[in-house]
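Rotation project, supervised by the postdoc (A.L.). Task for the rotation student: set up a whole-complex structure prediction and record inputs and outputs verbatim in this book. Inputs entered:
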Amino acid sequence: MEIGQTRVICTACIAAGVPRWRKDSGLGWVTAEYGMLPASTGSRKSRPIGRPDSRGVEIQRIIGRVLRSAIRFDKLGDNTIHLDCDVLEADGGTRTAAITGAYVALSRAVNSGVSDGRLSRGIVRGAVAAISAGIVDGRAMLALDYSEDSTADVDMNIAMTSGGKFVEIQGTSEGQPFDSDQLSDMLGLASKGIRKLLTVQRQAILKKVRKGRS
Amino acid sequence: MEIGQTRVICTACIAAGVPRWRKDSGLGWVTAEYGMLPASTGSRKSRPIGRPDSRGVEIQRIIGRVLRSAIRFDKLGDNTIHLDCDVLEADGGTRTAAITGAYVALSRAVNSGVSDGRLSRGIVRGAVAAISAGIVDGRAMLALDYSEDSTADVDMNIAMTSGGKFVEIQGTSEGQPFDSDQLSDMLGLASKGIRKLLTVQRQAILKKVRKGRS
Amino acid sequence: MEIGQTRVICTACIAAGVPRWRKDSGLGWVTAEYGMLPASTGSRKSRPIGRPDSRGVEIQRIIGRVLRSAIRFDKLGDNTIHLDCDVLEADGGTRTAAITGAYVALSRAVNSGVSDGRLSRGIVRGAVAAISAGIVDGRAMLALDYSEDSTADVDMNIAMTSGGKFVEIQGTSEGQPFDSDQLSDMLGLASKGIRKLLTVQRQAILKKVRKGRS
Amino acid sequence: MEIGQTRVICTACIAAGVPRWRKDSGLGWVTAEYGMLPASTGSRKSRPIGRPDSRGVEIQRIIGRVLRSAIRFDKLGDNTIHLDCDVLEADGGTRTAAITGAYVALSRAVNSGVSDGRLSRGIVRGAVAAISAGIVDGRAMLALDYSEDSTADVDMNIAMTSGGKFVEIQGTSEGQPFDSDQLSDMLGLASKGIRKLLTVQRQAILKKVRKGRS
Amino acid sequence: MEIGQTRVICTACIAAGVPRWRKDSGLGWVTAEYGMLPASTGSRKSRPIGRPDSRGVEIQRIIGRVLRSAIRFDKLGDNTIHLDCDVLEADGGTRTAAITGAYVALSRAVNSGVSDGRLSRGIVRGAVAAISAGIVDGRAMLALDYSEDSTADVDMNIAMTSGGKFVEIQGTSEGQPFDSDQLSDMLGLASKGIRKLLTVQRQAILKKVRKGRS
Amino acid sequence: MEIGQTRVICTACIAAGVPRWRKDSGLGWVTAEYGMLPASTGSRKSRPIGRPDSRGVEIQRIIGRVLRSAIRFDKLGDNTIHLDCDVLEADGGTRTAAITGAYVALSRAVNSGVSDGRLSRGIVRGAVAAISAGIVDGRAMLALDYSEDSTADVDMNIAMTSGGKFVEIQGTSEGQPFDSDQLSDMLGLASKGIRKLLTVQRQAILKKVRKGRS
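Outputs recorded:
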């Protein structure tokens, strides 16, 4: 997934079995992990010792939640989908790029599982994509890059379904708090941006894969 | 901080010095930690090994962000405020209870620092409080307890300033995604609920402390 | 459990099953964990990274040993009792307060298990309570608070049964070593103090619980 | 240090500097670590992952406390003595063997430091040694080996100075609790045993070292 | 670096300062880290908890040693070069691909540092490249892919300088041990293969970089 | 195992069962761990926190690989041999001393298992031993001690079978790279040295053990 200078590798691996706490429920599971290569940022970022850093933990929880909302666990059955989102280059919006790319990886993995008979149909409930928005100099803007992001007053991440509904809204004022009008402006922009991303996703899902891996 | 059956101990400790990456900036810092006693939940929750569990990490990042928005770091100077929010009993809404209580602890600690001359005036920019809302059976509701929370379609946490603006919005659909109208309903309820909490906070800040600790 | 300014929350949770190394023995198990809230001490104590600090490890091993001596594991059967002792405020004697309080929590949990038929009778062999003693300025004293403790030459922790016998003696000279007479004095004082604690425990075990939790 | 089948390597290394919390106090420090080789026990003991296991933590805290009581920190000055006690073969009484051997290592290291002028005189306040005792079949016994230890009702570890005073008493009833008479019997036996150990220590301190290492 | 299906991202970051143990020596340092993305292997490889797995540790130590042999630390001065080798796809020979690619990244980073004046000339002593060889069905072969590797009797990794000398030889018989003749055959093949890699490296070092990062 | 001043305790423990990934294969497993006592080196070496340090990880991987090559896993059956190599004193060549000593421990453990009927015959394929070599002042030398090692240009570790074939070659130029002639010289010396070690091993395997432990 490339958006601006940001590049994230998203992969989905489907493994038999579910976590222990979900055993014998008949329901599947989706889990996500997020990482950054040390050289993905301006100054080298050390590898996390023993676990993702706390920012990474927060991000991978959001990715997992959003992608789980796209899945019917009863149809997935006794399987776990592992989503891995690894940032090769970071220039703002890595978490929303990861969500959008992870949906493509997940869809292709599921499609491939359906075509070779390992999975049943109807697992994917519908598409989800995500985008970031913010308030810069009092005005709502979409998909901030790193330099815009640093000066923004609000950093908002929005995930929506292909049906135009919200799956996740997560917004923080890093400077001035924001009011309802600014919130509406950001959500309006995001809604348009996500519509474009959903189109790009559809094309990417259908594209032939270089080496047959999904 | 008690809200429903939920009880959270919130404390603020002010220590000289700031984290290394902030040295020589002249700016202070606020950091938050969140924990749950093992017996705070229905079935015993193991102590985290080596770090808060990932849910705790996400929550303490939110608490820290919201409370930082209430502080003028230039006035705080070369000091760090440590906020500790430990859940004694959990019955829904622990993260918003923690934010609301942490603001009281922070204010009292700052007031006490001002009165004994260690801190300058004007550190606290204004009050913040937080509340949870959700959609249960299609209708927006405020401050869900654990049993309501389990059946809610949306779990939303909102933090607002005494000026009525948003500091943090974090909402997730755990079942059905939600639309703009439902979002408005939840934000409207939250706005009213937070106004009440701000009143309670003001009283708590003024109250005498049992043993002079803040 | 409150003694002086020291306050410790003690809880007991009974869970089906025993640790792996005890499987198929027909015997139950009791295990204890000890923690301190960051704000429980004069200057903030950092949360332990990845495990209790070494002082906490030593203390929770002692708590576990003493409470295990009060239990008939053959009667407990295939169950584990988890004792959690979390210090809200520390002013000396937290480990002995934890032992004394943990016995109350354990008894109430067992009684509740007996009355709803999950547990058999006769699990609790007899009461245990603990108290600290020391030598200050050459004289034996009971239940030192933090400021006395800091200047004591000896720090001794004694746990005894309701039958007046010793379960654990752990004493360290932190300044001058002590002789047999001083040891006798400390054990004599402790014996009297523990008799009072055993009375308090009996009352606490019978008291109605606020919300039916033990 | 060999006692029965138990063999423990005890070494003392003196390094310039003290831990951070003790800086600029003019006082030295003594710290101890305790380990067991995997093959030291009947069935192989896994290497601890990331830290000594909790039993080891408790033991090394006791070793450190006892040896610190033998040292005048003002004379030691800005130096730290690291004591390492590693069990090659375990057959009961490893912690008391470790204390007794660590005192020899410490004395020789200090003597060697005094003779080459790195350390001042008068650092060692006096000798300390330790021994274990217990109650087997109702009778007090000294220095239990592993098979006696397993059936003992009480496991007691006593450390005493060359002046015949107590430095540490740590006793636990693992079966029947014990009364004052039994305690006196154990302390009496320990007192005699420690006198013999103090003689052995004196000889070991004077012995020439194979390769000049202490 | 791509060789066969194996793809490794190699980056070099030059940071001011050296590790503590090398301070005030006037000499620089080179360190390497090696990782695999979870989806780089046939079946998903879990992220290492807290550190590279032991295979990764061994590999990154070899990468570091080999690349250090290419550097004149006195010319590098008070700087550390961090090499990061992250495997995107693994199909045999990842460690030798990492060495070969890391040399390119290192050279480009040094050249860029020289041209903007941060570094002095003469830091790179000469080129190094590495290749794997093995014995399959009794015959020496070069650059085994994963399926060949699995059936090989010997797995050998050879790093050589542009002057045709050895920097590292690391060979293991995983089935039949090997004799001197087989060793000569493998080293002969490796020598030829490395000559080709050195040519490819030279071209890659001169190539324009997409976004000016090295 | 003593060679020069280097002393390593090597033990082998045979336990029923194999690691999970090897279950139901009918094949046994051999695994090695390597540690250094803190006082084994000139200046005290801290205990590794949570795992062997990276040098130790590399060494124990080599020990395990070499010893595995000596074993027929089909004959070993559903058993795991744990090799523990702990360095008491280090003066160069600890890893090759560990390999040579581990083979003795392994052989004795297997012989003892055969004689009491727990193991079948034919498990040990043949002897392996290891030695280090290097280039000092341009000349190949055998079994460098610590002071020679520090000035060597090449550090090479060679493991060979009693049949005179190579099992592991691991050589690194720490200063000048080396050419084929120097490699031949080192391998020639190693071959002679290993022949002597194989004789010593045979004697050690037959020797009576002090306390019947192997």
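Student's summary: Helices of chain B lie at 54-68, 73-76, 94-115, 146-151, 180-206.
Supervisor addendum: The two ends of chain B are 13 Å apart (CA to CA).
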